[in-house]
Amino acid sequence: MSAPPATDAMLPEALRDALQASQAQVNRLVLGKQQQVRLAFVALLADGHLLIEDLPGLGKTTLAHAMAATLGLGFARVQFTSDLLPADILGVSVYEAQARRFEFHPGPVFTHVLLADEINRAPPRTQSALLEAMAERQVTIDGQTRALPDPFFVIATQNPVDLSGTYPLPDSQLDRFLLRLALGYPDADAERALLAGDDRRGLIAQATPLLDTQRILELRHAAVQVHASEPLLAYVQALAARSRRHPGVRVGLSPRAGLALLRAARAHALLLGRGHAIPEDVQALFPAVAEHRLVGEADNAASTLAKEILHAVPVD
Prior knowledge:
Elements: H1 13-29, H2 34-45, E1 50-53, H3 60-71, E2 75-79, H4 86-90, E3 91-96, E4 101-106, E5 113-117, H5 124-127, H6 131-136, E6 138-141, E7 144-147, E8 153-158, H7 171-174, E9 179-181, H8 188-196, H9 200-205, H10 213-225, H11 230-245, E10 249-251, H12 255-271, H13 279-290, E11 295-296, H14 302-312
Parallel strand pairs: 1-8, 1-9, 2-5, 5-8
Antiparallel strand pairs: 3-4, 6-7, 10-11
């Protein structure tokens, strides 16, 4: 696949330095997870949401807190439980006797960064409270639509569905997440550094905010401007088309998933200092974008299917 005929405009030096420093700080707080940290920043720059799925105790919440501390944005955390109600997330109208009218009390969703911790411990009705917020950046309560702050970034954590006390996320909810990633166990060096170092919560509390609302909006605007050539668009389209007829796939990728993959590839290119996206960006992001959207037949694992689809589609 040929490169674009010209190099696109790059980030201003101060903005590029702030982005690099932000990634470096999160990597100091979450040891040995450089690839996962990069994916988290891809979700942020691509104006998407991030789902972190893994066993308890592997650093899912730590990564979310480290991102929030570094971004310098308003932050709220909701611990999802089996008795959590939609009003606990969105807010509720309360009658004020003195004023003789209902006053709306906003819930924690009215923030820039929302940590939905262990999202699949809540029943589907409560999970669905986030659908409109994640898709439209607004919520409708008592017939009135209220806009959410901009930027609005959801970082959700979930435990594997085979653990007790969990409810599988419906496909419509999963599709609202741009990327899904897993942390896995740390390598030996990272685990030794964790054991020998300071408590992560204390380090996160001392972290310096390195970005802000204006810088994040500028980064998102820059990500949209990253060049995607016609051959690259054809490659993304071919991956989506292959997923719909690949053996073992019951539900393939929708056009919205193709758009998500392209947005993520553009953000990934920007993080690597390029003004144009290349096939390697698409390939690096495809598993994180596709696996939670693919539905396999019988025992076909989505992770295996995503790898097979990548190998089956050549790069022209």
